[in-house]
Amino acid sequence: MSEPLDSSISDMHGETAFPRENGELVFENPWEARAFGIAVALNEQGSYPWRDFSSGLAGEIGAAENHSTDSTYYERWLASLEMLAIAKGLISKEELESKAHEISQEDDHHHHH
């Protein structure tokens, strides 16, 4: 049984509030749930305070809206997570790009077979 989310995470409001349906978190794709879980787990491990993540997410949302970028909530979430992970030294930009390329190759392979 999983523990309930820290209230600083679960009580996000306004533009940073989670997509919900009937009070439950909504993920359209499996990667969205993974990105969510990684961000929460890194916070729980003490890698960064949640306010750092939520302020980065608010910035991503604002930038996307100011530039009329057509991105989803979790695409903005992932961009925030990537920037924070790099800024905190959890991963380098090069390592992140390499891992993203590796995953996209695996996804392409699985879709063709």
Pick out its properties.
113 residues, mainly alpha, 5 helices, 2 strands
CATH homologous group name: Nitrile hydratase, beta subunit
CATH class: Mainly Alpha
- In spatial order, strands of the major sheet run 1-2
Portion in beta strands: under 5%
Q: Pick out the low-confidence regions.
A: none
- Summed up, the helix count is 5
Q: What report would you give on this structure?
A:
With 113 residues, this protein is mainly alpha-helical. The protein has one domain (7-112): Cyclin A, domain 1, CATH 1.10.472. 63% of the residues lie in helices and 4% in strands. It has helices at 7-10, 30-44, 50-66, 73-87, 93-112, and strands at residues 20-21, 24-25. The protein has a two-stranded antiparallel ribbon.
Brief overview, please?
This protein has one domain (7-112): Orthogonal Bundle (Cyclin A, domain 1). It has five helices and two strands.
